[in-house]
Structures are given as structure tokens and as C-alpha cells.
Specification:
The protein is an alpha/beta fold. The protein has two domains: about 200 residues, Rossmann fold (3-Layer(aba) Sandwich); about 140 residues, NAD(P)-binding Rossmann-like Domain (Rossmann fold, 3-Layer(aba) Sandwich), CATH 3.40.50.720. The protein has 17 helices and 14 strands. A six-stranded parallel beta sheet has the order 3-2-1-4-5-6, sandwiched between helices. Strands 11-10-9-12-13-14 form a six-stranded parallel beta sheet. β4, α5 and β5 form a beta-alpha-beta unit. α5 packs parallel to α6. It is elongated and about 70 Å long. The mean pLDDT is about 95. Bound molecules: uridine-5'-diphosphate-xylopyranose.
Amino acid sequence: MRIAMIGTGYVGLVSGACFSDFGHEVVCVDKDARKIELLHQGVMPIYEPGLEALVASNVKAGRLSFTTDLAEGVKGADAVFIAVGTPSRRGDGHADLSYVFAAAREIAENLTGPAVIVTKSTVPVGTGDEVERIMREVASGAGAKVVSNPEFLREGAAIEDFKRPDRVVVGTDDEEARDVMRAIYRPLSLNQSAPILFTGRRTSELIKYAANAFLAVKITFINEIADLCEEVGADVQEVARGIGLDNRIGSKFLHAGPGYGGSCFPKDTLALLKTAGDNETPLRIVEATVQVNDARKRAMGRKVIKAMGGDVRGKTIGILGLTFKPNTDDMRDAPSLSIVAALEDAGATVKAYDPEGFEQARPLLPNVEFSESAYAAADGADALVIVTEWDAFRALDLGRIKAMLKTPLLVDLRNIYPPAEAERAGLKLVGVGKPKHG
Ligand code: UDX
């Protein structure tokens, strides 16, 4: 199959690279000439484990190429994937579809034959209908079939998720378009049993939002249970295990923490609420989730302040991990942003270490001093706070940390250290949803 991938963001670049690795011929198109130039040099615009090697091997094999020229990219394509951004529109939280529609128009004008147009960007219900309308406006686009194929990959595990998905969702009622999609995803069904779920287009569009909203609800649920655990002397990790072993609940996404962030959950829950509002069908559970999660990120700053005795004026706090989760350099809606703001507002000085996030974090956190290592962030600080659970923080020498801290306090917002281990090192540990000691 010949595939054009419009947009080389997270989803576009990973999908393009993986499709080429399946053996398809893929051209990735982006308007950003600098990005394309970097990709030509083998430099990845994002940090994602394994991506650079995957891109390099497929470029070398002649199956993957990059261009700023959309017309050249879509020439002769069997399928054109739209994987451009759908950010929250400033002001109202609706998904901003201007990039999707602009891409659709340009694709329509440049098609050279019948093609399947696939929206991979996360788009609100009904977007496919609009893309189809745009196709019909131009003679060259009139024969195109418009399909929804949402992407469920997670940042940091993107290649693994793409190549071994739980399911592939394809939204179209058109049999020919289904055949093209079957051919594209055939390598997945050969090696393993990833089911392709064929649905109507609107259903497929909604599946993506419903999945993300459900996961956001699940995280937020366990976060609230964590708060209750702290009050009643229970342990949220044991509660999560105890409920997660019930297959109907499942053990994943039950890790209590400082609240979800990232490029998807915050934006997609808001967009879903807009769709619900427009259709006069309130989704109260999702509404509550958004509110609880926003409040939680701020509350985590107060939690640190409380653990430090209530007054942090003139104190220094070391932070480990700034990105919204490990194995990414993504700072979008990261809980660290709210936590640092709360600590600085209360008069503290913050220093921080993150294995990959510095470049993105620096402009967002202008008053933070960036440390060279986890130990440097602890050196001379009044407390050390783990905000993101990078693997590099899982086996720290706690004795060394204790010796470097002015006050032996470790606030572990991801519960990666058992209290006994911290105690042995002479550190006071404050976790999330843990019974209070002493
Ligand atoms: C998510 C979805 O998982 C993915 O299917 C979709 O395509 C895009 O959005 P991603 O944003 O990359 O992926 O990260 P994910 O691993 O899902 O984590 C999202 C946020 O939830 C992070 O801030 C993470 O720290 C938090 N989280 C996740 C928890 O706090 N607890 C958990 O148990 C799981």
C-alpha cells in the first residue's frame, strides 16, 4: 500500500514509521520545513524510545520519506491519513479543527486517483461528515472515501502500543474502504489477534473520546479514594490491588498520583463535554472528573507545603520529574506546572531535575533552577518531591539523599518507595493515599 501521512506530530510520525515498518510505502508530510529538515538528518522532533532507530531503518530501506510538499506526498496514495493537531480552542474548550479542515481541503485539491482519507487525529463526532463534504467540493476529491481510525497509543510506549494494540477501530460503512484498511493493518492480524473493530464513522469517533474519558474517570476515582485512605488510615495501593483483581474492574490505571496530565486526557475530556453540551446530553461523571483533576493538581502543592510544616517561605524544594509522565519530554498539562506554581507562590525556591523534559520545561518554569541530577536537586533542599515516576528515580540511594537534604523529608507523589525503605534511610516519607505514620 502507498500511504501519505499528513502531520508529523506524535501520532503521525509514530504511525508513519510503524506503517513503513509493516512494509508499506509511506510519505510523511508536514508544513514545518525545519521539522522535515531535521527528519531528513535523522533527528527526531520528539523524544520517544525506539523511534529514531525505527525511522532510520525504514528510511534506509526506502519505504519511509519526508516532505513539505503535500501534493507530492498524496500522489498515487491508496490512503491519506490526517494526523494533524486538534488542540483545545482558546476560550471555549472545543477541539480546534482548523488544521484538520485545512489539510482535508489541500488533500482534496491534490488527489490523483481514488483514495481513502483516514482521520487519525482525535476529532469530535461528525468531523468525518465535514471532511467528506470538503472532499466533494473539489472534482479531484469527489471519489474519496472518508474513514475514522482513532489512535490509542500512549506517549513513551508509542511504538509498542501501535504494533501491539488491544484493538484497531475503523469507522466506515463502505466495503471498499474497509478492504483498504484491512490491507493496511494486515500485518497486525498475521502475528497476533488484534481485532479490527469495524463500526460506523460517528461511532468510531465517539469510541476514542469515550475511551479517554473512561480512563480519566478511572484515575480520578482512585485519586479520590487515595484522599479518603489518608483520612481513614487505609492504603490506596492495596485498595487498588484489591479492587483491580476483579476482572470487571481491571488493575490498570489505578495508580493514585498528582492527577492526570498530557496532551490527550485534559483536552479530550473537555472536547467531549462540549459535544455533550451541544447535544444537550450532560455527562456529569466526566464533568466531575475534569473539576476534581484540576483541583487535585493545585492541591498537590498544598500537600507538599503541609508536609513541610505549613510555611515554606525562604525554603528550597527539590523536584524530581517535570514531564506529565515518564519516557517523554512532553510538558503539556503536566501536574508539575501547578505544583511548582503553588510552591513558588507560597514563597519557596524550587530546583528540579528531569531526565528529558528540560528543554520544554525551561520556558514554562522560568524561576526554577535546573539541576544536573536527582542528587543535585536534593542537595541542600528542605524537602525532595517525586512528581514523575521516571525509572531513574526508582533506585535512588536514599541514604545519600538523606545526607544531602537539610530536612529529611521525601514527598513521593507516585508511591514508588515503600515507607519501610525510606525509614531505614532515615527519611520521613509522605506518599499518596497512605496511612499516616506516627
Ligand atoms: C493517553 C491514552 O492512554 C492513550 O490511549 C491515548 O491515545 C492518548 O492519551 P498518554 O497521554 O500518552 O495516553 O498517557 P497515559 O499513560 O495514558 O497517562 C496519562 C496521564 O494519566 C499521565 O499524567 C499519567 O501520569 C496519569 N496516570 C495514568 C495516573 O495518574 N494513574 C494511572 O494509573 C495511569
